[in-house]
Design brief:
- The chain is α+β, with helices and mostly antiparallel strands.
- Helices cover 45% and strands 18% of the residues.
- The chain has 6 helices and 7 strands.
- The protein has helices at 2-29, 36-67, 80-97, 117-133, 192-202, 243-253; strands at residues 75-79, 101-106, 112-116, 140-148, 151-158, 206-211, 217-224.
- A 5-stranded mixed sheet has the order 2-4-5-7-6, covered by helices on one side. A two-stranded antiparallel ribbon has the order 1-3.
- Strand 6 and strand 7 form a beta hairpin.
- It is globular and about 70 Å long.
- The relative contact order is 0.17.
């Protein structure tokens, strides 16, 4: 199963890249006039599938680093509300393209903790990508932050297809998807949630999932409240990244979603 899944995830984008390149080669060889709109769509498809491969390789490398204790965190003190709200706001447009409402809410405007900002960004984007992928048009995704018992809780809840009770225990296993590989309707390697779990645990936290088939899912990431880290974190927060950086990261993490 492992080899089958890896082969599928590598072969699918490679086949698309190859077929696009072959088609463009035929156009050029036959001296056909290229339609700009069609050419633009082909290029966008090439970029999306390159991003899929880059994301897959990045996830492979990071999981390997985590398991061999070579993954380095850069903990900084920041307002986690501001960080998660900025990440969520950056993806609203993408959810809207799929006809999905994306709503951010919190009862507290400030929750200061020490965490690795890149890890938080990847955790939230992975959870949002997963929610968008499995929520049908007309559905909704709710991102909520709360605090209690020494933890900050980041909840990503959707009104999607949900997960059968007997499958919930499998979703954090690498290369596993709930639907069968040969019949599944959604692309993805199945290692995104594995990475979410590993990164959350590296931050000293834990992740829970609550779901029911056809009634949606809720993923809750709990991070410990402590502020032992660099105090000059403001310049590192995602809200101060350039638009291009944010867009590129979203394109990378959402590369297996077809808009």
């Amino acid at each position: 199963m492992l080899i089958t899944n890896i082969s599928h995830e590598l072969r699918t984008p490679l086949n698309i890249l190859l077929s696009n390149a072959q088609l463009l080669e035929i156009y050029l060889r036959d001296d056909e006039e290229l339609d700009i709109g069609q050419l633009r769509r082909k290029i966008e498809m090439q970029i999306r599938n390159c991003n899929r491969l880059i994301r897959l390789v990045n996830n492979f490398i990071d999981i390997s680093k985590i398991e061999s204790n070579h993954f380095e965190l850069e903990p900084v003190k920041c307002n986690i509300v501001e960080v998660v709200e900025a990440i969520t706001a950056s993806t609203v447009e993408y959810a809207g393209i799929r006809g999905i409402d994306l709503v951010f809410d919190t009862q507290q405007e400030e929750m200061f903790i020490c965490c690795d900002l890149d890890s938080i960004e990847r955790i939230v984007l992975n959870l949002l990508s997963n929610a968008i992928k499995f929520t049908p048009r007309g559905g909704a995704i709710y991102v909520n932050l709360s605090m209690g018992d020494g933890y900050v809780r980041i909840s990503v809840k959707d009104t999607g297809i949900g997960i059968p009770g007997d499958k919930i225990g499998l979703i954090f296993e690498r290369f596993r998807q709930v639907d069968n590989l040969m019949t599944r309707k959604h692309e993805g390697s199945g290692i995104g949630l594995t990475l979410v779990k590993l990164l959350t645990e590296m931050l000293g936290g834990r992740v829970h999932v609550y779901s029911e088939a056809n009634k949606g899912s809720e993923f809750v990431v709990e991070l410990p409240v402590h502020t032992n880290g660099k105090t000059n974190a403001i310049s590192s927060c995602p809200v101060n990244k350039s638009n291009e950086e944010i867009i590129q990261r979203i394109k990378l993490e959402f590369s297996d979603i077809y808009f």
